[in-house]
Amino acid sequence: MTLKNASVLVIDDDLDVLTAVRLLMKTEAKDVTIEKNPENIRNLLSKQRFDVIMLDMNFNSSINTGNEGIFWLRKIKELGSDAAVIMITAYGDIDLAVRSLKEGAADFVVKPWHNERLIDTIKEALKKKEGAKQGGSQKNEQSVRGELLGESDVMQDIFYKIEKIAPTDANILVLGENGTGKDLIAKAIHQHSIRSKQAFVKVDVGALTDSLFESELFGHKKGAFTDAREDRIGRFESANGGTLFLDEIGNISLRQQAKLLTVLQNRQINKLGSNEPIPVDIRLVCATNVSMTELANEDRFRKDLIYRINTVEITIPPLRKRGEDIVLLARHFCKVYTSKYMKPNIELNNSAIEKLKQYHFPGNVRELQYTIERAVIMAEGDDLQAKDLLFSPLEAPAAVKEEIDDMKLSTMERNTILKVIEKHNGNISKAAKELGLTRTALYRRLNKYDI
């Protein structure tokens, strides 16, 4: 079905929104019905069949659940309507809108929208609806995966979220520990966006000093500073029309944050050494290993900048919380590196798999990848066994290492006390003298180690 032949129902308690959509759709659709009160949905659906329903997420209604949109979406489904429901939402409710997709919504649009984008969204919803009728509509999760692998529930949720938010122009903040694959998420978002044919530019902003920050991001004119021997465009200009990925955004200084905020607000840059503003059109994806709680500390990060970069957030779980994905990824890396190092017959045996399952992977997917690569290189047989998997102590958090060291020291001290007491046939005074302790100090240790 085409939009020209479609009947559209718009439900929103904002009269300005209703008027704007009716005027826009007047020449695009067969007919457009507008309604302020969602309580009238049942009556409207009993009188007419609609192909598309645009439904606001929040109403000043008696329901007052905080998610009225999902309530009325369920009602529409209960009433047997096969209309493609498109949720209307504000930036602050995008996570709620994404959840509505699991309730059966076809898509969502964010206020204020571009008219062309709204029409494209409606056309796409109609196309999906028609495909479903013909039995050709299937959820193609692989289409958004790219280099991402995972079958766990948490990863399925991430794939689903990428599929829905990638086609929008919303700014994305990707959160996760080091080694979880935040850059792969950023690439997947770009590859499935309307900007996919344009540039994807990555910058590790956490590694930029104050002196390099402006030059690297905004560019400079010849002579702007001592080493500026020629004009140079910055990363914002390089990404114009495409996606700019700012990695380790949580590590930039407050001064750098202020400069970045100015550019995002004005959507234009000024090169160092120039007063001429240059407009830029980028889709922004940021990533950090800093938690949202830490980012909320205004002594560390500007709250107004968080709102700019975090229209939607995606939190990648650590590998230890991904269950069987550990084995899936291990077998994938094993296949990759046995091919690379020309050892095609090598496979993980059961003991190796059990060892992988029991390890906590503080270095996440990156640590797993390097562990498998090292094991394949050093392997002498066709089986990778538990003893072949050596985990790097460099990845262990400081607290874990201290705990391990403390345990080792405690064990040594306990064993030494037992040997000296045994040597002196239980004489505490002689044992304390040899150990260089007072009797009181030795008794404290005996109590500590339950001797």
Total beta-strand segments: 16
Sheet bearing the most strands, described? 5 strands, parallel
Shape: extended
CATH superfamily of the largest domain: P-loop containing nucleotide triphosphate hydrolases
- Strand fraction equals 5-15%
Distinct helical segment count: 19
Mean pLDDT: 85
**In the CATH scheme, what's the topology name of the largest domain?**
Rossmann fold
Q: What structural class results from the helix and strand content?
A: alpha/beta
Summary of the model, kept short:
The strands form five sheets. The chain has a five-stranded parallel sheet with strand order 2-1-3-4-5, with helices on both faces. It has helices spanning 15-25, 41-47, 68-78, 94-102, 115-133, 142-145, 153-165, 182-191, 210-218, 235-238, 254-266, 292-295, 303-309, 325-340, 350-358, 364-378, 398-423, 428-435, 439-448, and strands at 7-11, 31-35, 52-56, 84-89, 107-110, 172-175, 200-204, 219-220, 232-233, 243-247, 268-270, 277-279, 283-288, 312-315, 347-348, 383-384. By secondary structure, it is α/β, with parallel strands linked by helices.
Write the layout of secondary structure elements.
Blueprint: E1 7-11, H1 15-25, E2 31-35, H2 41-47, E3 52-56, H3 68-78, E4 84-89, H4 94-102, E5 107-110, H5 115-133, H6 142-145, H7 153-165, E6 172-175, H8 182-191, E7 200-204, H9 210-218, E8 219-220, E9 232-233, H10 235-238, E10 243-247, H11 254-266, E11 268-270, E12 277-279, E13 283-288, H12 292-295, H13 303-309, E14 312-315, H14 325-340, E15 347-348, H15 350-358, H16 364-378, E16 383-384, H17 398-423, H18 428-435, H19 439-448
Parallel strand pairs: 1-2, 1-3, 3-4, 4-5, 6-13, 6-14, 7-10, 10-13, 15-16
Antiparallel strand pairs: 8-9, 11-12
Helix pairs in contact: 14-16, 17-18, 18-19
